[in-house]
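Technical annex, item 7. During the second reporting period the consortium partners agreed on a shared format for inverse folding records so that results from different sites could be compared directly. Each record opens with the tokenized structure and is followed by the designed sequence. A conforming record, contributed by the partner at site C, is shown below for reference.
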């Protein structure tokens, strides 16, 4: 187990790191884990930026949301479709979408 001061020291170092150093670290993680770093057209994928941002958020003490349980066929209830989305008709979906739009009636 790590020394009690190791994690705060690591977080402080991450918060003080330059952006290009964080991207280089994330690039290493992507390549070391064998994750794809380019799409079929040869365009760079955003993994490095996303990993660097996630490491920075961790160091800054960001709180994570609740984990979303994975649903498998046969384990869902009758309020969800096969992908875990809520079942509703078009009118209810439109009403929810309208209610989610801030400042519109």
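Designed sequence (site C submission):
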């Amino acid at each position: 187990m790590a020394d009690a001061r190791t994690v705060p020291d690591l977080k402080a170092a991450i918060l003080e790191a330059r952006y290009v150093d964080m991207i280089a670290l994330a690039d290493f993680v992507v390549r070391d884990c064998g994750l794809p770093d380019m799409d079929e057209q040869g365009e760079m994928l955003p993994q490095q930026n996303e990993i660097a941002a996630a490491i920075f958020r961790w160091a800054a003490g960001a709180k994570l949301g609740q984990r979303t349980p994975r649903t498998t066929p046969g384990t869902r209830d009758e309020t969800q479709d096969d992908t875990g989305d809520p079942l509703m008709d078009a009118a209810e979906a439109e009403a929810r979408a309208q209610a989610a739009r801030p400042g519109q009636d």
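Residues 6-60 form one domain. The chain has a mean pLDDT of 81. All partners now use this format for quarterly exchanges.
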